[in-house]
Specification:
Largest sheet: 7 strands, mixed
Structural class: mainly beta
Shape: elongated
Order of helices and strands: EEEEEEEEEEE
Number of strands: 11
Number of helices: 0
Distance between the termini: 40 Å
Strand content: over 45%
């Protein structure tokens, strides 16, 4: 199986920064893409930042503030979050699109989520 584990969430003040990390491990053969989603209170889960190959996409509300990066060798993805706003408060989930060593298909695997709380 594949395990996806996030870390780095916590409490920040508005205008502050946090850095999220995520590592995929286990039966990982190839990772085609990794990214971050979030679920804000009372809202549906939304894509925050996603990196497929060398191309990165961001939701409009975080453009210019958040930066996604990957370490291919470590099967890791990071989310640098600057100029945080209270509306960034959410549970942040990491996802990885993985080809495992037991399947020819690529499947999406998700972490358990990490809480980010931004105070005003």
């Amino acid at each position: 199986q594949v395990r996806v584990v996030e870390s780095g969430g916590g409490l920040a003040q508005a205008g502050g920064s946090l850095r999220l990390s995520c590592v995929a491990s286990g039966s990982v053969l190839i990772i085609s893409a990794m990214g971050w989603y979030r679920q804000r209170p009372g809202k549906e889960r939304e894509m925050v930042a996603y990196m497929n190959g060398g191309s990165a996409d961001y939701v409009d509300s975080v453009k210019g503030r958040f930066t996604i990066s990957r370490d291919i060798d470590k099967n890791a993805v990071y989310l640098q979050m600057n100029s945080l706003k209270p509306e960034d408060t959410a549970v942040y989930y990491c996802t990885a699109n993985v080809r495992t060593d037991y399947s020819d298909d690529y499947d999406d695997f998700w972490g358990q989520g990490t809480q980010v709380t931004v105070s005003s």
